[in-house]
TrEMBL record:
Domain of life: Bacteria
Keyword Transcription: yes
Keyword DNA-binding (UniProt): yes
Range of residues in the leader sequence: none
Database matches in Pfam families: BTAD, Trans_reg_C
Gene3D superfamilies associated with the record: Tetratricopeptide repeat domain, Winged helix-like DNA-binding domain superfamily/Winged helix DNA-binding domain
Molecular function (Gene Ontology), one example: DNA binding
Start and end residues of each OmpR/PhoB-type domain: 4-107
SUPFAM superfamilies from the UniProt entry: C-terminal effector domain of the bipartite response regulators, TPR-like
DNA-binding region per UniProt: 4-107
Assigned keywords, A-Z: DNA-binding, Transcription, Transcription regulation
Protein name per UniProt: DNA-binding SARP family transcriptional activator
Amino acid sequence: MDKFGGLTSGISVRLFGTFEIRRNGAVLTAADMGGRKPRHILEILLLNLGTPVSKTRLVEMLWGSHASDGAIATLESYVSGIRRAIQPGNTKKGPLRTANGGYVLDPQLVELDLSVFHQLVRAARQAPPAEAHMLAMQALELSAEPLLGFELVADWAEEARARHAAEKVAAQILAAETAALLDNPELTISLAQTALQSEPLNERAWTILVTGYEQASLPVQGLSAYERCRRLFDRDLGCAPGPALQAAHLRLLRQRAEGNTELSEVLAALLYLGERLHGPKRTQLAAEEARRMQENAGRVLDSFLQQALAAV
């Protein structure tokens, strides 16, 4: 049973994967919507759940510059058909309402999987780590299939997919960060790698990936990941990774140098030099020079460590 219980006017809608509507035990598919345009109208209203969309805006999204003089009347006819399909015998008080020269779907009478995804992610951001991780993973499981994957040619659908893709990456990173807090580095690494497949320049994803390798005691893999990130940022953004990622890189260097007295002494000397150059009396020029020296020193030591490993 869905959240509506005995309320026959409520509907549950699926936009991830296959389009589907459940109404009082009945299942409606795309074929029950009366054609492509009526389905598009309903989907646009679902993407704007609770917010009225004007008839003019709907006509523009559906027909663009090809809209005829009778487009408004055609739109109204399609909406009547949608009402008959999703709220039969209750066209006045069902989910689909007329509002402000347009139409709106009542969020109190519509359970939408995309809205549930948003609710889960919002709740995860406010929850302690264990609960946050569970909620974020639930959101990712719910959105495993593409949003509006059956609408391949509509610009508005592509825009919705792009927005959701960014939201999904944020959920993946949140799940990865909470996995790290729960001491699950394997899952941390996997989630971060998945996020980077979608957004290769996402520094937060790179940071949690490197942190995951650090937590898993895999310094060589972590150093390699940092180097890939550094090269990518330098090529595409013209900048170096930020302080949090550089700090993770430094911890990996220390981890890699453990047990090797000579390497540890080299690293300690580099760190001491960097601290002196970053002291309270530094000039702006000295600070910039220190930043460059630390970055170059890190790369040199990183390369040296990996070469030493390869020679073993």
